[in-house]
Every structure is written in structure tokens, then in C-alpha cells.
Write a structure and sequence with these properties.
Blueprint: E1 17-19, E2 25-32, E3 38-40, E4 45-47, E5 53-57, E6 61-63, E7 68-80, H1 94-102, E8 105-108
Parallel strand pairs: 7-8
Antiparallel strand pairs: 1-7, 2-7, 3-6, 4-5, 5-7
Length: 114
Amino acid sequence: MTKYYDTIAETSYDGLIVNATPSAHAFGITLEADSTPRSLIRGMILLNEGDEAYAILTDDVEIPAGGSFNCTAYRTGHFARGRVVNEDGTPVTPEQEDSLRKYGILLSDAIEVE
């Protein structure tokens, strides 16, 4: 008999998603690393070949050196400006924010409530 009450996973609100409009829509993507491993964090922006911001990573990702990893990223949604960062941890620039807006990703200031 199937148990419908067992906990499969748990999550907590981290403040990345600010609003349900526009909805946060995720898609699958393969990320690669060169000769050094990469540690990527949830909320990091992804850049295309033209260094244009186009998506936001949904989860923390560890990519082995010379390897690749299948993961998911948000292609649309409304996110907290202070939670979205570049790979080096720096805040998103106004140019990157404009690029994200073009792809349907909005950033706004959000107050953190505990």
C-alpha cells in the first residue's frame, strides 16, 4: 500500500522569489566546467556566449573539473535584487538587470522578514 503522508523533501523560503507574477518558470540546462571545478549557488545569473544575462540558477550546483552537470534555471520570474548575484558573488549590474528584464526576469528590492 502506498504511503501518501511520508515526507519526500523539505524546503524553506530563502527570499529569492519575491512575487508570483510573472511566474517563475524553470527549464533544463547543462553547465560545464573547464580544468577547475565550479561551485555555483542558487540565485546566480547565467550568461550566454555574448555575456548577456538570460537566466537565474534554481539550486546550488557542484560541477567537477572538466565535467558537466544537468540542472535547472529560471527563465522568467520576479526575484529579490539582493539575492541575485554574479558567479563571483558581486551584485547584478544595471546592464545585466536590463538584459534579464528582456528575458522576462524582474528584480526588485525586498525587505527580509524573520
